[in-house]
Amino acid sequence: MAEAWLGNLTEAVADLGSNGVPGLPSIKTKKLVVRNSDLIWAEKNVIRMVSMAQLKGGCSNSSNPIKTLQIPNLNFDIHSLALNHTKKLLAVSGTHQVLVIVLPRPGYANLVTPTLDSRSILIGQYYHALPGSSQLANVDWHPWSCSAASLLVLTRDSLLREYDVSLDSDEPQQSLSFTQHSAMPGSLSTPLSNHRSRGFSADDDRDDECVSFHLGCSSSDWGALTLYALMRNGDVYALCPFLPTHALVPINYIQNLRGVTEAKLLDPAHEDNGIVEARLNQQMRWLNAMAKQMHSLDGSATSFKCSSPRATGSILRQGPYLVQPPPSDDDEEADASDIIAIRPSQLPMDVFVVVYTNGRVDVCLATDNVEGRWSSRAELAAQPPVMSTYETIQLVNGADVGYPSLEHDPVYEDTVYISHASGVHALVLKPWLDELAQTECITRDSKLIQVVQTGERDNAQSNPVVALDIVNDAFLGYFLLALTANLQLLPLALSLRVEETSGEGVEEKEHKKGAEGADHTSEHLKHYSSLLDAAHPIDLDAAHPIDLTRGLDGGHTRDEIAITPQTLRYLGGVVSNVRRHTHALTASANSVQDRLSLQIRESARQIDRLAHVAQVATNPSNQAGVGSGKGGRVHAVSLDQLALLARMDRLLQRLMDRHQPTLSVHETKWFEELARIRDEVGGSGGGKNGDAKGRALQARMSRLNHQLNILRPQVEAYQLGQAAKLTPSSAIGASQIAKVEGVLHEE
Q1: CA 227 to chain centre
Q2: What is the 8-class DSSP label of residue 182?
Q3: Hey, where are the domains in the chain?
Q4: Who has the most CB within 10 Å: 72, 402, 479, 561?
Q5: Which residues contact 280 (CB under 8 A, 6 or more apart)?
């Protein structure tokens, strides 16, 4: 088959797995990531990777394409993997430790060795690895980091720390708290009024435990500068504006946001609202401070380096969101597990998807968009943001789904995948988003599809899904990869959507086709001629009741009928009318009987023809000459199709190799020789022997330069002496030349 390489990949990954019975994870996990065409997964404290492109192309030089990374500092069980946006750094997190690994270059698959040495950096050992430190909740990279090395680490005590791996891996650049106002840069010294979003009591400690966070993604408002946090009880907080300490921000984004904020500030509707006006003024000060950092930029520059301005004040923690309508009391007992915020193109607001440990999924709409807000006395009277619950969905009834996690589809913004202990579900928001784009009333619900089921519903915890990722590559294709706890890799091919043609266009096309070519189709394109023609209409007049009063004088209907010529003529008309109706009914009955007989014959004829077609399709050596060998031809066509697909894959691989060629063997040897010469001359490689050779060569070069400086004056003096010998001592005068010419003339 064309996708047989996926089966080989699944078997190769399963062979490296353990034989133990896995249990239900006690925390949210993500043990699989995809880097371009490389698959990276973790088992306990071991990280392995394989090139899916070379595995599909069959051009791997190694008998075992799976490589194991040798990482000296990795001595803990891995729970989560996170790739940075340059696909060069991998964040590895456990329960209390974080490690950043420098991934090998794409050419690692050509190496014969089964192991690869990788550099690693431990992150925040003082804050996370010491006894008594809080458990890690989530680890992710910020996309707007200047060096693509801004790592965000969230712990269960609601503290978020930003580490710049390129500068300092021990101390965070900034720390944020979602519970303690005084510990936040940007918090109020006086706590806000306790607006509980779900009606929990004050002694509920789950509102102080953070389980996940998500970065906003909208580029039309403050969404890209927003950080959302999810508490264990389901509360959602927002922090805006949030930037890494050393950020790289798009120029167009700041300029557009500055223009929108300035237009709001000039709107007369905000003049009467002091809180909104003060908030807009602070936003303009912050945006103006950001714009001042756009200095000495080229005309082709699209981003600029900056840091978040501090002069505008401390950033305010917004929330918790007020959920309307609130959940029931039974739903409040479940713990929240993960959150994701998306901004569909059909909506001017964020859509939140929150998943819980009991399998409940809440789809909510942010009624109030998040804006940049700073601590001030005016913000004390501001109302908390509101979140409207659109629908609540139950994944699996009566089963523990562990700690589900969410993954956004990279192709379709309205699709979210939910991985849990029972498998994987796809949540498609397209039905009601399309309806909302056409009308203001929404009646449809989201579509929930179970795409992967790891086992029976009553025993799904025996093999839970611990990781999920989506592959979208021109060579590999578009498919889903799910990893179970016992290292069973489950690939699932995904289909691209095809835009449906409107019903009106289809009807018009069919009507036009039927009006123009009905006769032509029946004569030239129809291989089977039916015995039935168009049905004849039945005479409905014969089925009507006979009017016996027609032709009778109304004045004699109640009197005794006398035998008169008039009554005789009336009786004759009635008899004639009855006889005519009788003949019409008889003709209609005969027509129906003939039609029924013809339909019976046609049905038997069609059954015989279907049996003949089935015999032709299933038996290549049947007695019918027209169908002889058709089964073999169908099989040959299918084999040719598979060969064409394989050829297309090889052609695409060759095109990719030409677009991004690798070094040949001779080029590799030449560069190695150049590196050896450089190390010998410069003394920068080869260990102690290399340094000794380099120092010896440098000493020899210095001695030769000294000798050359000594010999250069002697050589110059010698050259001057030789030039003097070649030059005549005196020149011949003009009179002497005239005498010589005279003597020569006489001779």
Answers
A1: 20
A2: T
A3: 1-172+467-497, 178-239+318-463, 247-306, 667-719
A4: 402
A5: 261, 264, 265, 270
- Bigger pLDDT: 185 or 345? 345
Q: Name residue 429's amino acid.
A: L
Supply the pLDDT for residue 543.
57
DSSP, collapsed to helix, strand or coil, labels residue 619 as coil
Q: Tell me the residue type at 304.
A: F
> Would you state the pLDDT for residue 36?
87
Question: Which residues are within 8 A (CB) of 483 and not within 5 positions of it... i.e. 6 or more apart?
Answer: 13, 31, 32, 41, 465, 466, 467, 468, 489, 490
Burial of 265 (0-12, 13-18, 19+ CB in 10 A): middle
For 452-519, give the DSSP string.
EE-S-GGGGGGS-EEEEEEEEETTTEEEEEEEETT--EEEEE-PPP-PPPPHHHHHHHHHHHHHHHHH
pLDDT tens-digit series, residues 586-613:
888 888 888 888 888 888 888 988 888 8
Residue 193 has what pLDDT? Answer: 37
pLDDT, tens only, 38-77: 999 998 889 999 988 888 877 555 567 889 999 988 999 9
Provide the whole-model pTM. Answer: 0.68
d(CA 240, CA 248): 17
Q: Phi, psi at residue 317, to the nearest 5°?
A: -80, 125
CA pair distance 486, 22, nearest whole angstrom: 6
Band (564; pLDDT cuts 50, 70, 90)? confident
DSSP 251: H
Amino acid 13: pLDDT: 82
Sign of CA dihedral 328, 332, 337, 343: positive
Please list the residues that pair with 533 across neighbouring strands. Answer: none
Look at residue 441 and tell me whether its pLDDT is greater than 80: no
CA dist 153 and 137 (Å) reads 8
**CA–CA separation, 230 vs 607, rounded Å?**
64
Distance CA 492, CA 481 (A): 7
Residue 615 amino acid letter: Q
pLDDT at 647: 87
> How sure is the predictor about 673, in pLDDT bands with cuts at 50, 70 and 90?
confident
> Which strands make up the sheet holding 336-342, listed edge to edge?
322-324, 386-394, 360-366, 351-356, 336-342
Helix, strand, or coil (residue 148): coil
Quote the CA–CA distance of 95 and 132 in Å, as a whole number: 12
Q: CA-to-CA distance for 554 and 218, rounded, in angstroms?
A: 87
- Asked if 165 and 294 count as a contact pair (C-beta separation under 8 A), the reply is no
**Residue 650 scores a pLDDT above 60:** yes
Backbone angles phi, psi at 138, to 5 degrees: -160, 145
